[in-house]
Amino acid sequence: MRCIVLIEEIIDKCYDNIVESYSNTAILLNAVDVAIKRYSNESNIIALSTTANIPSDFLVNPSKERIYSVEDLVDAYKFDVIKKLAEDFLISTISKTDIMFEDIYRELLIKDGVPTEEITRKLISPWRTLTDYFRTLELEEPFVDSFHDSFEIYLIWRQFRHALLHSGGVLKEKNYSSIRISE
Predict the structure, then answer these.
(1) Whether 88 contacts 13, CB under 8 Å
(2) CA distances from 17 to 10, 114, 143 (A)
(3) Which residues lie closer than 8 Å to 10 by C-beta, 6 or more apart?
(4) What is the pTM of this model?
(5) Which pLDDT tens digit goes with each residue over 122-154?
(6) Do residues 65 and 50 lie in contact, with contact meaning Cβ atoms separated by under 8 Å?
(7) What is the spatial distance between Cα 183 and Cα 166, in angstroms, rounded to a whole number?
């Protein structure tokens, strides 16, 4: 019973973190919409500098300043900023879910009586053993199908996160081969 309570707490904590992240992302998307409307109708602004308000003592490389025209600024908000917010939300959500599954895996290993040293070893790089463990986890109805389906979908999203972080958002053959949908 202790394990089930801990797992529920782990899931609740992850869910709360994701909802908080979603709320913050929604607020940022609203700010983007406000900025698009403001700059689209602004006739007094000629350009905006990305470093203009940073004190010179803190500028690492002033030559890296980016100056946006009003049109460029509106386009950046419409496309680049929204894309960045979406990517960051996906990466953050999958990272939070990674932590949740690692914590659940730890609790299930403890429940199974696995020695502490072996748990530590399994959690150093857990994804092969964790994935195999969850794919073969025997659950009671009605949770079996929904858990296994959700876990498989999560593994697919994990490949998207990997592609965003390591290959500019392009799925490579390695990503495709990692996506195995259970029959």
Answers:
(1) no
(2) 11, 29, 23
(3) 100, 103, 104, 107
(4) 0.81
(5) 888 777 777 778 777 776 666 666 777 888 888
(6) yes
(7) 29
